[in-house]
Specification:
alpha+beta, seven-stranded mixed beta sheet
């Protein structure tokens, strides 16, 4: 038996409960067994539609030159989008984030499904800091460690495999040539 107080409370709360059920759907109990919608799977072809393609080279301290096909993230919208939702990168894929002026930057891996090596690059193209094997989906802040004009993201393990270390030179039109 339902008391008058309980029935009265139910009458006041029922509209709010129904609105929550309608707006919240499965998350609020309509079908607790349903899984959340899958994140979109982004491919290289999808990135080609959003980002300009270019190439860059990285000269390593062991006198080797490594070439990468790169997507260019050169405005706020593209920089915010980055490599989110991509599930697979080829060994020579990269993304180059270019900022309007040199600054300290910080990144995170939210909605990024693949681990990355992140190279922070000064205005002269010199790599000043590397964050290797970043954790997918992490909200941990990854800081540049100094003033940079760009950031290069590579598939995780690339920096170690190619001996890319701080001091390596990124060669791309976005960066000024180093002074002797």
């Amino acid at each position: 038996m339902i008391s008058k107080f309980t029935m009265s409370a139910w009458r006041r709360l029922a509209p709010a409960f129904l609105i929550c059920m309608h707006l919240g759907g499965p998350a609020l109990g309509a079908d607790a067994s349903a899984s959340p919608p899958a994140a979109p799977e982004v491919t290289a072809k999808d990135l080609d539609r959003v980002f300009q393609r270019d190439s860059l080279q990285i000269a390593t301290p062991d006198a080797r030159l490594h070439r990468f096909n790169t997507w260019i993230a050169d405005d706020d919208q593209r920089r915010q989008r980055g490599l989110m939702f991509i599930r697979k990168l080829r060994p020579d894929d990269s993304m180059l984030f270019i900022y309007p002026q040199p600054m300290t930057v910080a990144m995170w891996m939210k909605n990024t499904y693949v681990p990355l090596d992140i190279l922070f690059v000064a205005a002269d193209g010199k790599v000043i800091h590397i964050a290797e094997n970043t954790e997918p989906h992490s909200l941990k802040t990854i800081e540049s460690g100094g003033i940079v004009l760009g950031v290069v993201e590579l598939p995780a393990g690339t920096a170690a495999r190619l001996k890319i270390t701080p001091g390596a030179q990124v060669i791309h039109a976005a960066f000024s040539a180093p002074q002797p």
